[in-house]
Lipoprotein
Amino acid sequence: MRNGILICMLLLLTACQQPTIYVYTESLTKFQTEQLSVRLQQQSLPYQFTQLPVPKEFTAATLLTSEDKLLTAETEQLADIMQAMGYQPQLNYVSVANHHYSDGNIGFYLRGEQIEQGFDLPQQLRTTGCVEDRYNNLKVRFFDNLVEVTLLNGARAQLVWQRYENYLVINYRDTSQSYTHSSPLVATPFGEKPSDTFRYNAHIEGPQWLNCSLQVVYMD
């Protein structure tokens, strides 16, 4: 009788277990870590942070799903979190670097870029990695304390920018967008080239052209 009760309890426990998100992070700023925690609390699955680094085989933002059970809606929520933090997520359905999941569990991997202490601001950049693709490749010019964005209709919006610690901040009415600077190599038809890249840190309600990173690639 006791064995029967124990088996029933185990079956009930297994049935009640929810898929879990296993979160791997590396080199995130304090701001990014806090932002990630808030956004994970707003999605539907339980999650837990691991103490292990992101394997080098993974891109800066990777989702690794279960091979036997794909939770489409939940995976889209996690991809949205990565995009809201300025990343372009890569979705993997098979084992990578000996990491694999089953029963609906999901691996969430996010690697921060190395922040350079201080930065020189190029005079002209282009938008890239926008939440809405139509805002990619807008011209952005910086002056003494103003930034000028050439919009899709040709109009020029002028906003105030400033430095805050190691961040670039662009102010728009009662909101602002902050950017983290790095100098990654960028793949081009002529090989990898150096860049100045300012990755946006938050997904703001608008204008949508502020939900873009800024970049200049040096071809010479």
Notes: Residues 159 and 172 are 6 Å apart (CA to CA). The longest strand covers residues 191-200. Residues 1-15 have pLDDT under 50 and may be disordered.
